[in-house]
Write a structure and sequence with these properties.
The structure is a homotrimer.
Chain A (H helix, E strand, L loop, with lengths): L3 E2 H8 L2 E3 L2 H4 L2 E2 L1 E2 L9 E4 L6 H6 L4 E4 L10 E4 L3 H11 L15 E2 L4 E2 L4 E2 L4 E2 L4 E2 L4 E2 L4 E2 L4 E2 L4 E2 L4 E2 L3 E3 L4 E2 L4 E4 L4 E4 L2 E4 L6 E3 L4 E2 L4 E3 L6 E3 L4 E2 L4 E2 L4 E2 L4 E2 L4 E2 L4 E2 L4 E2 L4 E2 L4 E2 L3 E3 L4 E2 L7 E4 L5 E2 H12 L1 H17 L2
Parallel strand pairs in A: 4-5, 5-6, 6-7, 8-11, 9-12, 10-13, 11-14, 12-15, 13-16, 14-17, 15-18, 16-19, 17-20, 18-23, 19-24, 20-25, 23-26, 24-27, 25-28, 26-29, 27-30, 28-31, 29-32, 30-33, 31-34, 32-35, 33-36, 34-37, 36-38
Antiparallel strand pairs in A: 1-3, 2-7, 21-22
Amino acid sequence: MTVTTLNELAAALGLELRGSDAAASTPIEGLAALASAGPHQLSFFTNSRYYADLGKTKAAAVILRAADAAQCPVACLISNNPYFSYAKASQLFDRRPKEPAVIHVAAHLDPSVIVGEGVSIAANVVIGAGVSIGAGTVIGANCVIGPDCVIGPDCRLYPNVSLYHAVTLGDRCIVHSSAVLGSDGFGFAKAGVQHHKIAQLGAVVIGNDVEIGAGSSIDRGALQNTVIEDGVKIDNQVQIAHNVRIGSNTVICGCSAIAGSSSIGKNCTIAGAVGVINHVKICDDVTVTAMSLVNQDITEPGVYSSGTGIDATGNWRRSIVRFRQLDDMWRRLLRLEKHQGKSP
Amino acid sequence: MTVTTLNELAAALGLELRGSDAAASTPIEGLAALASAGPHQLSFFTNSRYYADLGKTKAAAVILRAADAAQCPVACLISNNPYFSYAKASQLFDRRPKEPAVIHVAAHLDPSVIVGEGVSIAANVVIGAGVSIGAGTVIGANCVIGPDCVIGPDCRLYPNVSLYHAVTLGDRCIVHSSAVLGSDGFGFAKAGVQHHKIAQLGAVVIGNDVEIGAGSSIDRGALQNTVIEDGVKIDNQVQIAHNVRIGSNTVICGCSAIAGSSSIGKNCTIAGAVGVINHVKICDDVTVTAMSLVNQDITEPGVYSSGTGIDATGNWRRSIVRFRQLDDMWRRLLRLEKHQGKSP
Amino acid sequence: MTVTTLNELAAALGLELRGSDAAASTPIEGLAALASAGPHQLSFFTNSRYYADLGKTKAAAVILRAADAAQCPVACLISNNPYFSYAKASQLFDRRPKEPAVIHVAAHLDPSVIVGEGVSIAANVVIGAGVSIGAGTVIGANCVIGPDCVIGPDCRLYPNVSLYHAVTLGDRCIVHSSAVLGSDGFGFAKAGVQHHKIAQLGAVVIGNDVEIGAGSSIDRGALQNTVIEDGVKIDNQVQIAHNVRIGSNTVICGCSAIAGSSSIGKNCTIAGAVGVINHVKICDDVTVTAMSLVNQDITEPGVYSSGTGIDATGNWRRSIVRFRQLDDMWRRLLRLEKHQGKSP
């Protein structure tokens, strides 16, 4: 959709349009933030920080809650969840080029590959024996899909994705470029000083509606599978080690690393650059803030953090010297308190 | 090997089988953990945490130390190093599809490329002039190997690996998908506010039995080479900068970053998400725990850490305020001690 | 250039040659550090740490400041900025194989692609509709370039790079292998427990003379563009989220992560493995040291840090216990001070 009217948009989004009748036929060309939107753009109001922008917006219309409609100088689309309505609207205005539903002549598919209806397979894709690809799925150029993988319907793999053998993707999954699914878990047995490889016999099983970011990697399990449940969203450059289980609808932001055999519950938010050490369990409904190290189980829902905040380096250098002396400081404090107790 | 008998397995692993004669002919179909193994699966006991599981296991047999045999309700395979024996057994049960020992018609090899016996080169591989590839090596689909690379025998490159020019890989190396070897080191000279590129004239030299994880990158040296010695194991998404040297049999876990011109000794364990700043030397036999920053040389073997443990965010916020005041706290503590010394 | 004379080199670098007339015709085969350079290698002196090496060097000549010439036992090339002169010399000795200025027969270009003069496109490259590629640009094997991208002249994309649609690269940009530009920003709207994708309607705009390291990812904007200004240098495995803006000539070292909608000013240095949380503003001329978390705006030029230095794990364990008690320690210290004030 590149041009539509406000009226049509309201219908497509299932929202009530409030405003002058004239507004209903305004052609809408796209989406923009309140402050930058022009008279042919739709905007949205979700955050009270932007009240001033709302009052001055020149958008054709604003998606907002009924309670905020009075503050809006232009037409309104009334939503109980304006951010969700914005998400739906964004899909309508996505100008991402459509891939043709064909198998490119320069793709290399094993004769045993089963391809659903309407599948798009781009140039230089290589697909191994025994793979099945669900209807409507799009495989970007130069992807490699190992033997025995199962890819559900309506998935999208962007270019240069690698799937090792026996990886399962559910329905409507998105995998971004340079991601790797099913690589060997990092398992070795030591004999003397040498590390001997433990063959990784498990696989990777990914549920429905999972998104996996650019350059992320998910290792196959050692004996069992590595499991990513339905609705999990994984950002770029996230590392998921072998045997990990991520519960449904959990979000993991960029550059986080989840070490082997750990599990994260449902509906968690793991912010960016977080580390989770191996064999740790995180329960449902946990938020971990950016760059924290989860070095023990988390058994209660809540918000967790580690690290220190940013500081001028000069002061920071003094703090880190004292950090190493913290236990000494503690003992000296106790001694002072004890002495104080004795003093008159 | 998909089915064998326990007797044959014992012979293949060089282990003594203890148990009833009946057990010797039990067909074994795979490996599993003690708690989940069924009567046609082999298991192993390496960690006293799982004593209870050992007593109840339904495995066909368990690899364990002679001293633990009495606790085992099923047949035993006696090993001095059960975890290493498990590693060997895992290789026997790896069902990873074998690649055919052919050069795919859709691979692009410069006519000067020297290919050993039994080499497998998949579709869309591109190999530059002057490259040699040792016998038995497997190059996965869509790999690109720059001019003048030398790849030893029995290596495996998984799909979508990139090697720049003049990278050397020893024997039996494994490189996982999206890894990049020989990219330019990050070197610039400043003139005014602009950064001018320093051509990276060194190469990357990788020893024997090295494994490099998915999405990892190893930059070529500025003048000398970046060197990874024999037996080093590098996990996913590890960054090794220019001029770095990693000593033999050192293990580097996922998402760690080793900055330029640093060196790590032999037999070290660098846990996940560790940072090592540039020009640092770490001696042999050092362990660095997860997400630590090595900001100075480590000259004594031992275990090292930095960072703070995970905490509820509310308390953590208070701690980080005080962290910035640590030097002030220290001075006030000293003042109190001085005063106390004077008090009656 | 593989062999030249010192005289020719001095002319090429625009530097004055001081030393015997004999030195002027010395053939120079390459560059090396002061300590390892032989009589046919050029070296450079930029750091007083290496004074001893300068006095003993066996190099054919040394690039250095006029003030240091008296300490040099061999011929000198006099430079006001020896490190910059070294950078220029390194380019002369780069033996990187040249790519032929042809479009490989196994490349797949949409008929609408506009290709400048002298462009090199390697095997298995896939380029979408509406793309234009400037003169002299080199596209490595197995790169995928989405529709509507604009790539300036004299760029170099190394193998296995992925560009999504509508990414713009300026002149003389370098993009290393496995990098991903234009992947979807990580944006979701929550409805119940589920996360609904927000289509990312912005693009990525990259200025001139930008270098992007191996495995790095730069997401497209949600509504506006993600913008990387001229002269920015980005190392390996860096993650730049949607809507971020990086100011000109800023340097971002390996494995750093810049979260959504943050901006970094001009001429900043972001060291390795740094995290910047979302919606943060960092002003011009800021340095952030390795592995710091920028969890608030930085409004003054200067050097900033977070984290704790490396320590023996035994002591560190005690420190992190006390870290959690820091606010308690602070209160107890205040109480002691108050009591002391009352004490005789």
